[in-house]
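Protocol step 4 of 6: structure prediction from sequence.
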Amino acid sequence: QEKSCRLSAALLGEDCEISHDQLYELLKYAALGKCHNAAQPSWCRIYHQSHLAGVVVVVLHEMSQVHFYRFYLQFRHLRKVFRHRFTLTPSADFLASLYGEGTDLKPQNTAQGLTSSSSECVTKSSDLQCDPIIRRYGEKRQGLTSYTLTLEEQKKNDYPIKGSPGCKDYISTECDQQRTDSSPLFGLDCEMCLTAKGNEVTRVSLVDARGQCLLNELVKPERTVMNYRTRFSGVTKKMLLPVKTRLSDIQTKLKKMLPHDAVLVGHSLNADLQALEMIHPSVIDTSLLFARTEGRRFKLKFLAKAVLGKEIQCEQKLGHDPTEDARAALELAQFFIEQGPAKVAELNLEMLLTAEKLAEVSQNKAALQPQGCGVQKQLNESPPLSKPCFLDCLQVTGQKPLLLGRQGLDSSGLCQSNLSTSNKQILQRALEDVPLSTFSIIQFSLGPEYIASHLHAALYEKVRSKLTDMLTIYAGPFEGSFCLKSVKKEFGRCGPIQSLTVVTESFQPYVCVQYEVLEAAQLAVESLSGAEVAGSCIKVQRPVTAAMLDCDVLIKELELDVENEGMIYVAGLKKSLTETDLQEEFSQLKDLEALFLPKDLQSGKHRNCCFLKFQKSQSAVDAREAINGWTMKGSELRSRNALASGHLWRWIWQMNHSSGKQGKHIFYEKMEQLSDSEQDLRKKVKKLDHHIKKLYRSLHSNTLCVVLFPGLNSTHGSQPGLGLMGIKNDGGRSAC
């Protein structure tokens, strides 16, 4: 049974700010595992990395953390799916830092690097005893029965087995006669489309031991087709319209064609048999026959060229030819049986593949040709990197990275020469290609009219202004001679106060309190409105402005945000309490996973509040109810659901304590210009969120997905980026 991958990350407080080097660590390990010196990232952990189905990085070009929180309600999918978020330090050259320029890898794209790598491979290959083919089969020639998969090998490689879960309704070929070394070989290959059911057969080919085609038929899928995969299958909607043949017809034909001692040959034949919903006891899988180390497999196209000297799956053709692929797999098996393991090992296939990939890297300065709608000029026109990125290593290991983008990027920023393609077209291409690629980078953009630096600055000012209003409450009325000290003490029990001033413009005095955290302001509104404070029954409310009309909706959505799941806020702590004291006091709470004690980022002193993270949501609910009214060291505690426990808390603090606050008068004209187009921008952001949702749903289970708002680093200012990440599980939500 396939293991479920899991991602864990303690992204609280100072730990939630991630550099590009740290992001590179994550992507490199996810893509390569322990190969090429890839190690677990220092700031998070991937469990069962070898079971990852793929890595998908979605880059939202020229967008920052500001965009996510300005259009928080529009990013409905992102905030409901991705539990792990981090602030991303902005970079002047985002793509170069993403690909890992300047990381500590051995040079491979220089002439000297190529020579040393190739010679090293030759030395290793000269010792045949170390070859995985020899280790598995020995050196002597053997009959075909020595190369058929055992029952245990079939189970391990996801072959349909009689009586196994999921194969209840599968049809047996009824080829139960004992095999001998003279049993007939048959090559089998299928092309599939994607439906709601999963992979369904659209074309089947069967060839005999002489390579003669016995069957080559189109098949009508049972369910509605979601993706014909025409680029790979060669099958189009038009081709299938007149087809009457169904899967059951093909199953019947195959049962009649195959003799009772038939041995089926194919490349990753398990996928074909699963799609055919058929069980066959005796198979030779050429992807396993030509053994490699660490579970890797040679592609059929490479083996056909290296072993048979044949070119198949040519790019000039539309899709693969299943008869050609079935014949190639058959001939590869026949070559292996006739020549024996020693002759196959002497071909030095690993060396040939490495030399081929390294030659490809050396011919291309950027180490890969981007595919799809845009051309990444930054990769092709920049000077050769002195050290390769992990994408170079991916190419060498036979994995072809996928790049889809809307515009080219050069060292100066946005290149305007290639803007003819829309996000919709990129999405359509991504839906076809991403599920078939092990590593993909998809770049979406709002368009050039929305990424100007001055508009970004105006957007920042709007977000800063709204967050300030959300942190601010007005309370009163008080008597003329009220005690300000007792008012400050009472409101301070809700959380750390940034400032408290008396409002004298009203008939009776009011106080204006600005808090440092959103939870404190909300707690004050919920617990102190209608209460008696300093001898007066007061009302507590936030400022009434146009920007604050949706404040209640925003607060509710922040509470429901998946990042805040299982997280509560606790206020009223004495500042003399240390983190160790709190750990001890709260240790009795069930399923407590982590404690975060916010600190003043300048003085280092902790505030009178903390955040508690629980393994289960219900445990957080129980803890919140228990803590309200709880007395700790003579201080009464108050608690509520968390609103901004992770990276948002740190960002709010930096906004409120920034010495370089930009005056509103500077942006007045630009903010008016932004307001004119903001409604249209909301629609675009909502559509962008929908695109990411569709892409995410198309991903295989156990796919790591990382969504990046790169941030802004220009002469107009610097704004941090934002990263969201998770591993998709079977339920469609990211696994933590």
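Step 5 (inspection) to follow. Confidence is low (pLDDT under 50) at residues 101-126, 364-388, 407-420, 659-673.
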